[in-house]
Amino acid sequence: MATTSDIRNGLCIRYNNDIYKITEFLHVKPGKGPAFVRTKLKSVTNGKVIDNTFPAGRKIEDVRVETHKFQYLYNDGEFYHFMNEQDYSQIRLLEAALDNPGLMKEGEIVTIIINSEDNMPLSVDLPASVILEVTHTEPGVKGNTATNATKPATVETGATVNVPLFINEGDKIKVETTKGTYQERIKE
């Protein structure tokens, strides 16, 4: 058993007869009244995100997990297929288990969190950022970097990312995977 002081991003807990992964948390100590922890929980079974507040010091049931490196192979429309790097075994997961599947390209190395009690995969953690090539966007204008205006761009995985106006087709960009936002243009 853990307490609210053990809460951190990525912790898997059992709550309301389901397993949730903590995606955001904030310890709050108001001037008047008891302390509490405000959290965002994502269900690893159906992908639903809920907000919850735990009183400080409350016991929570954590789930013992293992992390393994897997290589993303392909998507067959319904399932995403991954291969373990150590023993080459393959698993398949539904889209609900993935945080941002549109940013994964084939061959990408991801971390899969597995419940050590029943060996069921719980969630997939992408790297903090990925480098993707822009396949379609409106033509960019040279020198248009002064404003924060953006335009939609389609990347090689099929996802749409808002990028600055100076980005052109064929440019490689760095995308943050947690929010799916543009970070910078990569020059080669």
From TrEMBL:
Major site of localization recorded for this protein: cytoplasm
Biological process, per Gene Ontology: peptide biosynthetic process
Pfam families found in the cross-reference section: EFP, EFP_N, Elong-fact-P_C
Alphabetical keyword list: Cytoplasm, Elongation factor, Protein biosynthesis
Domain of life: Bacteria
Domain Elongation factor P C-terminal: 130-185
Residue ranges occupied by any Translation elongation factor P/YeiP central domain in the UniProt entry: 67-122
A cellular component annotation (GO) from this entry: cytosol
Compartments (UniProt record): Cytoplasm
Family: Belongs to the elongation factor P family.
HAMAP family in alphabetical order: EF_P
Function: Involved in peptide bond synthesis. Stimulates efficient translation and peptide-bond synthesis on native or reconstituted 70S ribosomes in vitro. Probably functions indirectly by altering the affinity of the ribosome for aminoacyl-tRNA, thus increasing their reactivity as acceptors for peptidyl transferase.
Name of the protein in its database record: Elongation factor P
Organism: Polaribacter marinus
